[in-house]
Specification:
Elements (H helix, E strand, L loop, with lengths): L1 E6 L3 H16 L3 E2 L8 E6 L4 H20 L3 E6 L5 H9 L4 E3 L7 H6 L4 E3 L5 H4 L10 E5 L1 E2 L10 H5 L3 E2 L2 H13 L4 E5 L8 E2 L2 E2 L6 H9 L5 E5 L8 H9 L6 E3 L7 H6 L6 H14 L4 E8 L6 H14 L3 E6 L7 H5 L5 H24 L5 E9 L5 E6 L4 E5 L8 E10 L4 E5 L18 H9 L1
Parallel strand pairs: 1-2, 1-3, 3-4, 4-5, 5-6, 7-10, 10-13, 14-15, 15-16, 19-21
Antiparallel strand pairs: 8-9, 11-12, 17-18, 17-20, 18-19, 20-21
The structure holds 5'-deoxyadenosine and iron/sulfur cluster.
């Protein structure tokens, strides 16, 4: 079998694609890079906003056409597969395999069946399963929990991914060992709300550490860098901030979605905190980590959001001074409480507010990044940048960073970089040696210099 996988959505989906892909490989499948080469195409879907849903619809349309000309098995997995909306789409477009986010390990059974296979159950065995580490990569994701016990009124995730189920710490640490043995240096702990780890349905699980203690355990493993995402502000307790500060491997980076700066909107979103409470959490975090890099998620144009409410979001942005933000126009999702109870605002209002917010974010990111000029940052380099004269990577604070190539460094590893230039999205710098001196750059490779640079590089 030649399988091609397409992924939409969040890092959880990327992890799940990797998990299913590794199952397919264990059944003898070849993973191919395009739909044209494949006889099985599996789409990992996202249902959190309308746009990714429409993308899936258009891909399914194309695949139905392709099926008219050649034998092709089409599969759909992930959040949309769990919803009636997705199942209707699957029927309409002749999808053969449907796997909800809790049934991913049914992929084997699905492929053995000659008939249509739809798996929609939530199974615990998913948590015991350890996918092999990604080959040759320094970064990896590690799922520590699935689902969500919150009920934010705009969000479809509690419906698609079900209630929160924490993964047993032994399984997490075993997976961490396989990652470390494969050379992984940065691990991102994943979950819808990682800070609530070990407290499922409001009850602490026996034998499960708190999230702060899990961070300590992972910190003792020898992994160089630890990140985690995502956190609900109400579960971000001060002991987590204190543990982050005390555990050297944990990066000084916090992604704390605020969604809105207006307490009135937050109440309608059922976020369980006010503007003031959120700001108190930020103050706690900064008390323990004064230089923390802060990112957030914001929804503009939630039903009933007035210009005054939106102004409060803008002023909260200034009050916190985020380093970066993921910003979205509210998208009404069938099946969510806000879809049922509130009227959507006109699209023009939402887009106009979104562009004002994006302007603010750019301004802050430019200032924050410019403030890093002259500092030394620890950068995990992945390999060649778009321009092969440069290497790219990211800092502990998740800033994409680009450096010119130097002799002896091929690009995979963690290095010290002095920042000398910054844009709102990218920082630029020079690689340093152990004494903090800039390493000599390789001559730039362009057609004229090519003949010259090859012998120089070898010298
Ligand atoms: N409309 C717009 N954005 C949404 N998000 C979740 N649901 C919606 C929706 N219905 C955003 C939130 C969340 C991020 C993953 O997606 O900001 O934090
Ligand atoms: Fe959705 Fe809220 Fe749960 Fe996040 S915390 S997944 S926004 S319900």
């Amino acid at each position: 079998m030649r399988a091609h996988l397409i992924t939409y959505g969040c890092q959880m989906n990327e992890y799940d694609t990797h998990l299913v892909q590794s199952q397919l490989v264990s059944f003898g499948a070849d993973i191919v890079e395009s739909v044209d080469e494949a006889d099985f195409v599996l789409i990992n879907t996202c249902a959190v906003r309308g746009k990714p849903v429409e993308k899936v619809r258009s891909v399914l349309g194309k695949l139905r056409k392709a099926k008219e000309h050649r034998p092709l098995v089409v599969g759909m997995m992930g959040c949309l597969a769990q919803l009636e909306e997705g199942q209707q789409m699957a029927r309409k477009f002749g999808v053969d395999v449907l796997l909800g986010p809790g049934s991913l390990l049914d992929i084997g059974k699905a492929l053995e069946t000659n008939d249509r296979f739809w798996g929609l159950a939530f199974k615990d065995e998913l948590h015991d399963h350890i996918p092999p580490p990604p080959t040759g990569k320094l970064q990896a994701h590690l799922t520590i929990m699935r689902g969500c016990d919150h009920h934010c009124t705009y969000c479809i995730v509690p419906t698609t991914r079900g209630p929160q189920v924490s993964r047993h710490p032994d399984d997490i640490l075993r997976e961490l060992d396989t990652l470390l043995a494969a050379g992984v240096q940065e691990v991102t702990l994943l979950g819808q709300n990682v800070n609530a780890y070990g407290v499922d349905g409001g009850a602490r699980l026996g034998g499960y550490p708190s999230f702060a203690n899990l961070l300590r355990l992972v910190g003792q493993s020898g992994v160089r860098r630890i990140k985690f995402t995502t956190s609900h502000p109400m579960n971000f307790t001060e002991d987590v901030a204190a543990t982050m500060a005390e555990t050297p491997a944990v990066c000084e980076y916090v992604h704390l979605p605020v969604q809105s700066g207006s307490s009135r909107v937050l109440r309608r979103m059922a976020r369980e905190y006010t503007r003031e409470k959120y700001l108190a959490h930020i103050a706690d975090i900064r008390k323990h980590m004064p230089d923390v890099v802060l990112a957030t998620d914001i929804i503009v144009g939630f039903p009933g959001e007035t210009e005054e409410d939106f102004q409060e979001t803008l002023s909260l942005y200034d009050e916190v001074g985020y380093d970066s933000a993921y910003m979205f126009a509210y998208s009404a999702r069938p099946g969510t409480p806000s879809y049922k109870h509130f009227d959507d605002l006109p699209r023009e209002v939402k887009t106009e507010r979104l562009s004002r917010l994006i302007a603010k974010q750019k301004d802050w990111s430019a200032r924050k990044n410019a403030g890093k000029i002259g500092t030394v940052q620890e950068v995990l380099l992945r390999g060649d940048a778009h321009d092969a004269n440069f290497l790219e990577g990211h800092t502990r604070g998740n800033h994409p960073t680009v450096v010119p190539k130097v002799m002896g460094i091929t690009g995979a590893g963690i290095y010290q970089v002095r920042i000398n230039h910054a844009t709102p999205h990218v920082m630029y710098g020079k690689l340093l040696d152990a004494q903090g001196n800039e390493l000599p750059e390789l001559p730039k490779h362009n057609p004229e210099a090519a003949a010259l640079s090859a012998p120089l590089a070898m010298a």
